[in-house]
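User: quick one, sequence for these tokens?
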């Protein structure tokens, strides 16, 4: 039992613990660790790596290019310090006609605005409140959903209008019940959601979205080391379009 308890509390595992809610996962964060992304010490974590164009980005690039003629505003939710803006910049033909709005946590937005003020980043606008967001043609959420601290439908309904197009990437899914775990960022632990796939697709349908395209990302499959019997998750991407309109 002592060995198992040490494993569950280990600061060296990529993912540990299995919880039924975001709040339960927060309560289980190690006493010597920060909680979540909204900390200055976590903001710069793996920035260069996250800003690289990767294989799993290409379906998003494909659909952004296809949607370019009807796109004037992209809401990049969970866009960090413009990681996808940086990665996609030279590969998109949107030019100055598209407003790229990055929504993220206050600590990240503060850092992003500093980069803009210092001239290290040009183009995106940073916001930390959904009430500040304009109506967007496209919601881009690449890697956001596993960290989101509210249900996705509540998040969407907090926007001034439902976006016509959803581009969702790196959504962690499983066939069993939704589970939360903790991801280790060294100085911090971050609640991490692995969604029941069928429930997630049902939610999109109830919101009025048709899934037009879906892909899997085998390299981003995850196992919770403390709970291997839960099996490996499947990382997926989706392009969904609002019905009608």
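Assistant:
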């Amino acid at each position: 039992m002592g060995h198992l308890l040490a494993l569950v509390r280990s600061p060296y595992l990529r993912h540990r613990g299995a919880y039924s809610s975001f709040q339960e996962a927060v309560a289980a964060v190690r006493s010597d660790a920060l909680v979540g992304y909204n900390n200055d010490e976590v903001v710069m974590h793996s920035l260069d790596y996250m800003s690289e164009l990767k294989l799993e980005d290409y379906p998003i690039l494909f659909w952004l290019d296809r949607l370019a003629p009807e796109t004037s505003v992209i809401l990049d939710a969970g866009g960090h310090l413009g990681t996808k803006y940086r990665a996609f910049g030279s590969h998109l033909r949107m030019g100055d006609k598209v407003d790229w709005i990055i929504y993220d946590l206050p600590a990240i937005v503060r850092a992003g605005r500093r980069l803009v003020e210092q001239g290290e980043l040009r183009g995106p606008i940073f916001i930390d409140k959904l009430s500040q967001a304009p109506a967007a043609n496209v919601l881009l959420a690449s890697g956001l959903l596993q960290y989101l601290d509210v249900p996705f439908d509540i998040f969407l309904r907090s926007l001034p209008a439902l976006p016509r197009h959803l581009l969702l990437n790196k959504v962690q899914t499983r066939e069993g019940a939704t589970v939360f775990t903790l991801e280790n960022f060294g100085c911090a632990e971050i609640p991490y959601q692995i969604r029941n796939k069928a429930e997630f697709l049902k939610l999109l349908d109830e919101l009025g979205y048709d899934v037009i395209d879906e892909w899997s990302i085998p390299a981003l499959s995850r196992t919770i080391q403390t709970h291997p019997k839960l099996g490996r998750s499947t990382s997926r991407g989706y392009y969904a379009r609002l019905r009608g309109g």
